[in-house]
Prior knowledge:
Strand order of the largest sheet: 3-9-15-11-12-13
Number of domains: 1
Number of strands: 16
Amino acid sequence: MAKAKRGLLLSVLTLLIAIAVTATSTYAWFAANSSVQATNMQLTLKTNTSFLVIGANATAPATVDDIGSNVSVAATASSAEVLPARYDAATSKWQYAAGTSYTDGAASGGTYTDIGSSALGEYAIKYTFYVGLASNSESDKANLRVAGLTAASGTANGTFLPAVSALVSCTPASGTATVIDFEDVNTNTVKGTNDAILATTVTRATVYTIEVWVYVNGDNTLVKSSNATTAALGSFTVSMTLTVD
Length: 245
């Protein structure tokens, strides 16, 4: 969850008026005032809080204010049963493969088959979130990043836990999406060179769409038929924390 700094910075403009009066007997008819008044001084109260908010709205919010003020939100999509798969960043394709043998989960012959978009739901569960800096945040921020991912076993035991993975995509209001593949959620292992940064600049009042595909990484050596016992097959839960620098 986003950790928001707390506190208010009050900036007050003080007007200093200096009056020099020269009085001599020659200019005795000048009267020196004993008081002066300055009016219409204005101050603005601002916050130095950078308030990162997140929502799981059913439809894309038009503005960041439509997200609400949540710093933690539960995914709204239903869970589903999935088969092992992998994401090929070079081709931006989801793929599956047949295992070499009952005890060896490596792709038979190193051959992978692309998964069509209509069938992807059998291999990965998609969740959509919306994040942004609240419009009253002090300033734009750098580096919207995945600060942490964790996975826990639900009805399954921990056999396949290291294979629980997440593909995270961030799309700003305008621009190209950034995609990061975490092939082992619990170690936050990133496939590729990206340092878990989804956006290098986070602009106030801008909505960023975060899409997460949760899947079981078929390239993990633990994903083999001999491990697919009744106890090992079951549910897992994944949590993600996003931060700004």
